[in-house]
Amino acid sequence: MFSLSDYFKFKENNTNFRTEITAGFTTFLTMAYIIFVQPAVLSQGGMDFGAVMVATCLSAALATLIMGLLANYPIALAPGMGENFFFVFTVIIAMGIGWRTALGVIFISGVLFLLLTILKVRERIIETIPESLKHAIAVGIGFFIAFIGLVNAGLVVKPAAGMLQLGDVRSKPTLLALLGLFIIVTLMIRKIRGAILWGMFATTLVGFLVGGVIYHGILSSPPSVSPTFLKLDIIGALKWELFTIIIVFLFMDVFDTIGTLIAVSEEAGFMKAGRLPRAGRALMADAVGTVFGSLAGTSTVTSYIESCAGIEEGGRTGLTSVTVGLLFLVSLFFYPLARMVGGGYEVASGALLYPITAPALIVVGSMMTRNIVKVDFSDYTESIPAFLVMLGIPLTFSIADGLAFGFISYPILKIVSGRAKEASWLTYLLGLVFLLRYALL
Predict the structure, then answer these.
(1) What is the rounded CA–CA span in Å between residue 440 and residue 355?
(2) Are the C-beta atoms of residues 308 and 115 closer than 8 Å to each other?
(3) 52-70 tens-digit pLDDT
């Protein structure tokens, strides 16, 4: 007889049904912003807003269900932030490539993802990354998540002139985010299960009462996906001048996904002797999601760092991912409600703030930085590349670029220290690939 407990291995992972469902809701709520951010971005490239929203939900649901059912990991996927901006503002707007051809580029890169996954190239990369860099990736992404949370809360802003500075702490969304942070941390200190989820719900209620959260309704009919479904131009994307764009998308997704998988796996304790069990299955999810997404009408699908929110709530199995995937499908009908909880609220400066989900990101980011104690700071050939990764990921606002700092410096420092053999040949190759990326692309 079929049993959820046996299928997802609750006992082996020290978890239960309630914990996994709670973790799934938590992860979904922290990443629900993509439901409307993605169509808002892609519509600037001439794509239909409603169709992109449906494509986003469907591709996120498919990829996340594959992750949960096939790989049994609590990691959610959706169209990636960063990749979507590159897709619209560089490829479509700056280069003048039509969105149909651009989707063809995404399809080709997705097929290449599949090939690299089947050939176990991406799995081999995960196994080859030095231990110090694996820990650093988790810390760097922790800082990245917290930084995103601070920006989304309006606590950190970028002025017209200068670097970063303190935001307007008197604005209603920022005050609401601070209250949410206080509620979540208090619940965690009191060891209340589901602290992040309950904290977000409480913040939503307070925001609704004081006017910081806008009521959008509960139910709505899903828009039609026909304006973008199967409208991609694969033949047009096969032109030689678009080859470098395909490679860029391939590069971004490979290393964004690998970085996220390592960070989440470090946090959840999935890594075993430097290896991630079932890595091939986990990597299959974003590849299939990207191919399907391009067919439906959205950009590259990748693993989400917000999955760590569910991890912190105790999610340890694929049931967390299955919950997220189903919620993406349900959100097609509950879009107004999802928008209310995870939506952005415009302030006087014109910036969009996310007061409900921002506190969760800050808390989760702080949790992930504890991996810093695993880095050997007495060995400069290990600690300096690790430090550059930790600093590089949040400051470049890119997991891939942050990884580049470490992969380039690590083999160089091993060579100058006379310990070249401590780095594998693949580490040297990856360092060279990163160098060539900046030199040629």
Answers:
(1) 40
(2) no
(3) 989 999 999 999 999 999 9
